[in-house]
Write a structure and sequence with these properties.
The complex is a heterodimer of chains A (115) and B (111). Chain A has no helices and 11 strands. Chain A is an all-beta fold and 115 residues long. In chain A, strands 2, 4, 5, 6, 9, 10 and 11 form a 7-stranded mixed sheet that branches. Chain B is built from no helices and 11 strands. In chain B, strand 9 and strand 10 form a beta hairpin. Chain B is an all-beta fold and 111 residues long. In chain B, the strands form 2 sheets. In chain B, strands 2, 4, 5, 9, 10 and 11 form a 6-stranded mixed sheet that branches. In chain B, strands 1-3-8-7-6 form a 5-stranded antiparallel sheet, with no helix packed on it. The interface between A and B is medium-sized, with 22 and 20 residues.
């Protein structure tokens, strides 16, 4: 398994500002993922972040809005840029462990409210 | 694209068995997962099954997979109030390691 921490756990931000969310894992992992969970909804994959390469974004998500860094095998950041109230969501970091990275574990999430 | 469907709500009495169902469309799924999310918390990986298996048991949890019908179920034996949560089914596509989540089933356990 993997123990994942995220900072901040929650934040209230003003429209037009940016927030960077940090994700720290207790072991080295190749694959890290960022998800969004809008209120009362399921999870939507934003992007896959592998160390040493550019993040791969899913349809509907772009790098200018959600830049991601992956400087090493235990850490990643997701920035939510130029925020609007529609960005109010829980943002979750996830990692794949095991051979083939098929065991996927989640961090506790960052609850973002944009006013 | 991939699609994963679940019923939205299930209510059971404490001590009874719960069965949460899930259907998916991707025939190239390799792994299928069940996650639990309690209010205000992240997702907890409960169990997973490889697509060449049809059953997996882990203590009170039993996963059944019907690959022909693309149907996955999670049975919780002797359901407790602490099992009240939202349960997400998810599937991993074979070629690309993306995991697609279902809509979630809210399980309410009545004392």
């Amino acid at each position: 398994s993997a123990v994942i921490s995220q900072k901040p756990s929650r934040d209230i931000c003003q429209r037009g500002t940016s927030l960077t969310i940090q994700c720290q894992v207790d072991s080295q992992v190749t694959m890290m993922f960022w998800y969004r969970q809008q209120p009362g909804q399921s999870l939507t994959l934003i992007a896959t972040a592998n160390q040493g390469s550019e993040a791969t974004y899913e349809s509907g998500f772009v790098i200018d809005k959600f830049p991601i860094s992956r400087p090493n095998l235990t850490f990643s950041t997701l920035t939510v840029s130029n925020m609007s109230p529609e960005d109010s969501s829980i943002y979750l970091c996830s990692v794949g462990v095991g051979q083939g990275a098929y065991e996927q574990y989640f961090g506790p999430g960052t609850r973002l409210t944009v006013t | 694209g991939e699609d994963v469907e679940q019923s939205l709500f299930l209510s059971v009495r404490e001590g009874d068995s719960s069965v949460i169902n899930c259907t998916y469309t991707d025939s190239s799924s390799t792994y299928l997962y069940w996650y639990k999310q309690e209010p205000g918390a992240g997702l907890q990986l409960l169990t997973y099954i490889f697509s060449n298996m049809d059953m997996k048991q882990d203590q009170r949890l039993t996963v059944l997979l019907n690959k022909k019908d693309k149907h996955l179920s999670l049975r919780i034996a002797d359901t407790q109030t602490g099992d009240s949560a939202i349960y997400f089914c998810a599937e991993r596509s074979g070629g690309y390691q993306k995991v697609t989540f279902g809509t979630g089933t809210k399980l309410q356990v009545i004392p």
